[in-house]
Amino acid sequence: MTTTGRFTLPSESNFAEKTRELAELWGADAIRNSDGTQLDDAVRALGKKIYSAYFPTRAHNEWITLHMDETPQVYLLTQRVLAETDRVSIDLMEGFFAEQLTPNYDANPAKYWEVIDRTTGEVVDPERWEVHTDTHTVTVCGATPMHEYTVSFLAYIIWDPVEMYNHLTNDWGDKEHEIPFDIYHPATRRFVFDTFERWLEANPDTDVVRFTTFFYQFTLIFDPKHREKIVDWFGCSCTVSPRALDDFEERYGYRLRAEDFVDEGCYNSAWRVPGKAQRDWIDFLSGFVRENVKKLADMSHAAGKEAMMFLGDQWIGTEPYKDGFGDLGLDAVVGSIGDGTTTRMIADIKGVKYTEGRFLPYFFPDTFYEGNDPSIEAWDNWRKARRAILRSPIARMGYGGYLSLAAKFPKFVDAVTHIADEFRDIHDRTGGEPAEGELNVAILNSWGRMRSWMAYTVAHALPNKQTVSYYGILESLSGMRVNVRFVSFDDVLEHGVDDDVDVIITGGPVDTAYSGGDVWAKDPRLAETLRAWVRSGGALVGVGEPSSQWFQGRFFQLADVLGVDEERFQTLSVDKYFPPVVADHFITADVPVDPAVRAAWESAGYRIPLSGCGGGQGRVPLGGIDFGEPILNTFPVNERVTLLRADHGQVQLAVNEYGKGRGVYVSGLPYSAANARLLERILFYASRHEDRYAAYSTSNPECEVARFPESGWYCVINNTDRPQATDVTLPDGTGEHFDLEPSAIAWRRL
User: Fold this and answer.
1) Among the listed residues 236, 272, 224, the one whose alpha carbon sits nearest the alpha carbon of residue 73
2) Distance of CA 317 to CAs 251, 287, 339, Å?
3) Which NCBIfam families does its entry note (predicted)?
4) CB 446 within 8 A of CB 514
5) DSSP collapsed to 3 states, 563-574
6) Buried b (16+ CB within 10 A) or exposed e, 143-178
7) Exposure b/e, 532-557, CB count within 10 A at least 16 = b
8) How many Å apart are CA 169 and CA 164, to the nearest integer?
């Protein structure tokens, strides 16, 4: 087994001897600095490849303090203020952190700001409002009493959000705040490239320029208590300037409003159905960003260095899944490994020579403190990532932060030693080959390929109450024995469904980019195309509120395919009759149900038909499956639908024959091993490939198999921190038993 290579080690000044020791232990062939650390000559002399973090648009206050009108800007929306008379005063900065943001009074507010009556939606004429720069307020005259008013205003970003987070987390005290700058302004753009040229000359021993990242931060706004106020990992809010807005108008022929950015307070979240203005701004922005990223990459190459992009922080505008990313000339992409989904977000990027994962935990004092055991997070992070790496390899791994902190935790040091060796062993055995996929699965939403592995996300790898039931679908798929692609509703309208797709998964909450919004009412060809595809033998899996839009007396526009619709209190007078639940089915074969619970469910029976309600609902739940946040009032569209779970009077899981194809409805699936197994069975059943399911399956859902035909291996992994036993079914019907230690991996020849 190879014990050296494919590993990037963070280090810092005055830590050379321990760095050498850990580099040997972990097999590091590269050393990097991190935000707030530097590599001194002794560390650089260790003979490792040198990564140097480079921040193109911060850490030069000597420049930007002389050009404070060239910092990045953001459109902010004030609190809603109630007018009690015909005059109302609105505090611009209430709820915002004054050390991060300050209003832009340099550009004419009458041209670039908006005051809106939020009770009517009316834009208030600038003649009726006045800006008070001394108090950071706006006074509206002629207001309508009992109406709410807001101001959408431009603000300068005067403290880099990432440096601010690091500053506050590490208690950097009176360290000078790093002010970001916007290269859209020609003078600052020249400064950025001139500075980088000088830096290249001054750092001849740097092998890889690790751009962290480029020019525009994802939306990250803080409140006065230093807490996140607005966070959107895909948000373009922090990319505006009067100059850019004017250039956009000249190029696209229409002017963007402040409202196009604040979006009624939604800030164009990736969950919003993207409109023309948002898509046009992304195209405009990415064109500018990519042009200048290519210049930085070309300069790096001319100096004999690789150009690596960090997928995070100021990544906005690079769009690694948008056509043309490969033209930027970047050598590599590195990103934070939060789970299987974020691993695939990095690993599936094309157009670079290699990808690298920065694993967790980050070596910061919020994790590495006395009494905590960082090895727990390290192992959990590795187990989640490993599932995905087997399906879509990354070439390298590493960590970030203060190595001096991590070195104080021997158990963590031992964990990383094991993880690094196992990572290299996977590459040694497979040659970087991805595991074989049994099915081709397409995720269908408004964004499609441009947001591959980015769906159902607000903050990086941090699902919340509203998202967890959907995000679990991606996390399950990230390490499943299927091939995954992402397609948009527009793709289906323009090109239909690719011939090699076995299953389409679509769904999300109503009126979001993931369920589609009014596309279902606007263009009947979408439903026509998907219906025809399923009837011809395709498979459609709907999650949550798929194809949802109240139209023509129906909420799920593909309810006929899925066999399920949702009552929106419009058809209560139409009775809904539930067929009996089928407790034993191919899909639910691995679901553990307590025998006593099943007996109680069977003995309780079903509700008798009741006028105005229908009937047939189970009196007690069968359970056994975690569907996450409930989708209320779902019902079968007819009694031919096969219900697999319909607890508490609504449908959670159902299958429906539709011509030669099948539809499956599931209300939600937070990630767990049991739910990943359930989804896997759903996909094989829906596509009528039940006969292909058994080969290289495991009897224990906590264990999974990955098969590598080209290299002649298969492996069995234990995805838990506990010992597990499992039987693997082989293609000839025989089986092999495995007893696996916590987090273990076992290899066998095919």
Assistant:
1) 236
2) 18, 8, 24
3) 1,3-beta-galactosyl-N-acetylhexosamine phosphorylase
4) yes
5) CEEECCCCCCCC
6) beeebbbbbbbbbbbbbbbbbbbbbeebeeeeeebb
7) ebbeeebbbbbbbbbbbbbeeebbbb
8) 8
Residue with tokens 């946040």: 629
Residue reference for tokens 């001054």: 202
The radius of gyration of the chain from alpha carbons, rounded to an integer in Å, stands at 28
CB-CB contact of 177 with 60 (8 Å): no
DSSP string, 91-147: ESSTTS-TTTEEE--SS-HHHH-EEEETTTTEEEPGGGEEEETTTTEEEEESPPTT-
Is 257 exposed, middle or buried (CB count within 10 Å of its CB: 0-12, 13-18, 19+)?
A: middle
The answer to whether residues 316 and 285 touch, using CB atoms and an 8 Å cutoff, is yes
Burial class (CB in 10 A: 0-12, 13-18, 19+), 407: middle
Residue 743 region, left (φ>0) first, then alpha (ψ -120 to 50), else beta? left
Cβ burial of 567 (10 Å; 0-12, 13-18, 19+) is middle
CA atoms within 13 A on the CB side of 694: 10
Strand partners, 485: 442
Contacts of range 733-741, beta carbons closer than 8 Å, 24 or more positions apart:
733/694, 738/703, 740/703, 740/716
Q: What are phi and psi of 73, to 5 degrees?
A: -130, 160
- Interaxial angle between packed helices 340-347 and 468-478, expressed in degrees from 0 to 180 and rounded to the nearest 10: 60
The answer to whether the beta carbons of residues 727 and 699 sit under 8 Å apart is: yes
Q: What dihedral angle (degrees, nearest 10) is formed by the CA atoms of 333, 454, 323, 491?
A: 160
* Calpha distance 122→30 (Å, rounded): 58
Q: 307 near 207, Cβ under 8 Å?
A: no
- Of the residues 160, 313, 339, 348, only one is catalytic, namely 313
Closest CA to 72 of 152, 153, 154, 157: 157
Q: Is 313 tagged catalytic?
A: yes
- Report the distance separating Cα 116 and Cα 630, nearest Å: 36
Position of tokens 């506990």?
Answer: 722
Would you tell me the crossing angle of helices 186-202 and 276-302 to the nearest 10 degrees? Answer: 30
Alpha helices by DSSP H, listed for 370-409, are: 374-391, 403-406
Could you list the mean pLDDT of each consecutive 10-residue stretch along the chain, which spans 750 residues?
A: 91 93 97 84 92 94 96 98 98 97 98 98 98 98 98 97 86 91 97 97 96 94 93 94 98 98 96 97 97 98 98 95 96 97 98 98 94 98 98 98 96 98 98 97 98 92 87 98 98 98 98 97 97 98 98 98 97 94 97 94 90 84 96 97 96 98 98 98 98 97 98 98 98 97 97
* Cα 11 to Cα 33: distance, rounded to the nearest angstrom: 6
Residue type at 444 in one-letter notation: L
Query: Token pair for residue 229?
Result: 């106020």
The Cα–Cα gap between 131 and 117 comes to: 17
Of 432, 452, 434, give the one whose Cα is nearest residue 353. Answer: 432
**In the block, which residue shows the tokens 């003979």?**
47
Q: Six-digit token pair at 327?
A: 């033209």
Q: Which residues of 358-386 are buried (b: 16+ CB within 10 A; e: fewer)?
A: bbbbbbbeebbeeeeebbebbbbbbbbbb
CA distances, 111 to each of 105, 258, 437 (Å): 11, 10, 55
d(CA 422, CA 745): 9
Identity of the residue numbered 205:
D
Q: Is the pTM of this model over 0.85?
A: yes
Residues in Cβ contact with 45 at an 8 Å cutoff, skipping those fewer than 6 apart = 16
Which has the closest alpha carbon to 117: 153, 74, 88? 88
